[in-house]
Amino acid sequence: MIKTLEDIQLLNENIELECKLANGRDGKGELPKKTFWETYSAFANTNGGVILLGVKETKDHTFEVEGINDIQKVLDEFYSGLENRHTISANIINEKDVEVITIDSKTIISIKVSRAPRHIKPVYRTSNPMDGTYQRVHSSDSLCSADIVKRMLAEQIEDSRDNRILKGFDFSDIDIDSLNAYRNMLSAHKPEHPYNEYDP
Q1: Peptide bond into 122 cis (omega under 30)
Q2: Which of 73, 149, 173, 197 is most deeply packed, by most CB within 10 A?
């Protein structure tokens, strides 16, 4: 959670964090439309991440709060883009994912982009998944090859198959050792997940 100037100074861009200045030509604030939506696509198609708007990277790869003067303009551009399918193919943002933060009298925007479920992937820019789908590779957004995009499209079908209830099976068909191993991994990786409360 970013709350203080010290938090900003400790940042480094990685597979789940991207900082963008978002000042615009007039210096008052503007969503960096091309690069922002590339990062949104990349996070959605990989493991999710946080985009900080109003934070700049210096030459020595540290970060400074620049702030955004016209916060409402940037938010309006963001929400307008979310609902425009020529801008981005899917809106996977909840209200709690967007936070306006004031640090050292300067205001920035934090946007959490979750990993998209398989039935929504690929999340892509423009109207063509073949030339607008990105994935996160280290600290950069990488344009996906046609093969990767085709695999995501194929997994949409597999995801819908996973949601079907199979007839003629009951709990006795479950391999208990495999189920317990899965529950142990889930508990270790996500200790707060509600599934951990279920009886074995």
Answers
A1: yes
A2: 149
Tokens linked to 82 = 């979310």
pLDDT in tens, 42-70: 999 999 999 999 998 888 888 899 999 99
CB-count burial class (<10 Å; 0-12, 13-18, 19+) for 82: middle
* pTM of the shown model: 0.78
Class of residue 176 by CB neighbours under 10 A (exposed 0-12, middle 13-18, buried 19+):
exposed
Q: In the block, which residue shows the tokens 């708007």?
A: 53
Q: How far, in Å, CA of 144 to CA of 151, rounded?
A: 11
- CA triplet 69, 76, 122: central angle to 5 degrees? 120
Summarize pLDDT for 77-108 with one digit per residue, the tens: 999 999 999 999 999 999 899 999 999 899 99
The pLDDT tens digits for 28-40 are 899 999 999 999 9
Angle at alpha carbon of residue 25, lines to 92 and 54, rounded to 5°: 50
User: What's the alpha-carbon Rg for the chain, to the nearest Å?
Assistant: 20
The sign of the torsion formed by the CA atoms of 67, 69, 71, 74 equals negative
Q: Could you tell me if 17 and 7 are in contact, meaning their C-beta atoms sit under 8 angstroms apart?
A: no
| Residue 14 β-bridge partners | 17
